[in-house]
Amino acid sequence: MTIDKLAESSPNLEILNSWLVTDNKLKRSQKPFCAISGGSDSDLLMHLCATLDDKGKVTYVFFDTGLEFQATKNHLRYLEEKYGVKIETQKAVKPIPLCVRQYGVPFLSKRVSDYIERLQRHGFKWKDKPFEELYKEYPRCKAPLRWWCNDWGENSRFNIAYNTWLKEFLIENPPTFAISNKCCHYAKKLVAKRFSESGDFDLNITGVRKAEGGARATAYKNCFTPESDTAIAQYRPLFWYKQETKRDFEEAYGIKHSDCYEVWGLPRTGCSGCPFGQNLENELEAVQKYEPKLHKALNKVFGQSYEYTRKYRAFQARMRELQKSEEQQEG
């Protein structure tokens, strides 16, 4: 289909713009690659690139973390057949199970896991003391101590208070196991960097959307990052897509998503069973129903984090009830 025909079929200006800009980027690029995750945003990205890439220039790649849904792998095969392309699989530098054994389990978020890991390395005692006093005791741990002491400014997301009652929980329930976010680095970031540097690529195309939030989305200001001394150019065709834009695209072009969405009913997917997931319990329930072997593996890898997270959520609920009771008594 020509770009003119695609433009005519666009249900709104935002989608029209993504067709036009993506066509321009692909024509200018000599060797682009496109990261395909098997997620719903990735499906739109695949349709854009595969429809426009009439010269077969794009290399499609899937980064296997070592702990993936079978439904995702099945969907990747479907995409290969639908668009007549090959999606390369790149293994993790260190798969998630190995990372967890070596460094610790992820807990709550990347930032929280990073700060806890750094505090654990310094033998932190999880005491509520002033920053100046703690900094004398742990002089090589400034940033995590500022997090612990809420020293980054009022309402900052870099403060521990950003996660309600987390400090009180850690004081009452110090972690007895290693916590780390290293699996993100070795199973995702490093393998993507290694691949981008391995084949003389000049453009990295990803499905990041600003509206999805999270660290990935907030790291960028627009849809394009020029080439630098340390990285090739990056293009994000869906960056400005809102949720309603995404729905318009899906309806206009008959996009089919993986069973994780269309059968299991998950609102989004990432690394399977990741303790950072906002809908973790619903995801685990679905995995237990549809992929019980994976469910068993996830509990073996992340079990300590799952139990600790549940304990923290129960602590939050208890503190909310206590706070409510105190406010009623004062009223």
Note the topology.
Elements: H1 3-9, H2 13-28, E1 32-35, H3 40-52, E2 59-64, H4 70-83, E3 87-91, H5 96-103, H6 110-121, H7 131-137, H8 142-148, H9 166-172, H10 182-196, E4 203-205, H11 214-218, E5 224-225, E6 233-235, H12 243-253, H13 259-262, H14 280-290, H15 292-330
Parallel strand pairs: 1-2, 1-4, 2-3, 4-6
Antiparallel strand pairs: 5-6
Task: Please bin the fraction of helical residues.
Answer: 40-55%
Tell me about the biggest sheet? 6 strands, mixed
Overall morphology: globular
* Record field, number of beta strands: 6
Question: Which strand order spans the largest sheet, edge to edge or round the barrel?
Answer: 3-2-1-4-6-5
Proportion of residues in β-strands: 5-15%
Indicate the low-confidence ranges by residue numbers: none
End-to-end C-alpha gap: 68 Å
Number of helical stretches of at least 4 residues: 15
Q: What is the string of SSEs from the N terminus onward?
A: HHEHEHEHHHHHHEHEEHHHH
CA-based gyration radius? 22 Å
What is the mean predicted local confidence, pLDDT? 93
Broad structural category: alpha/beta
Describe the overall structure.
Helix content is 53%, strand content 7%. It has a six-stranded mixed sheet, with helices on both faces. The model has no long low-confidence stretch (mean pLDDT 93). Helix 5 packs across helix 10 and helix 14 (280-290) runs antiparallel to helix 15. Strand 5 (224-225) and strand 6 (233-235) form a beta hairpin. It is globular, with a radius of gyration of 22 Å. It has 331 residues and is α/β, with parallel strands linked by helices. The chain is built from 15 helices and six strands.
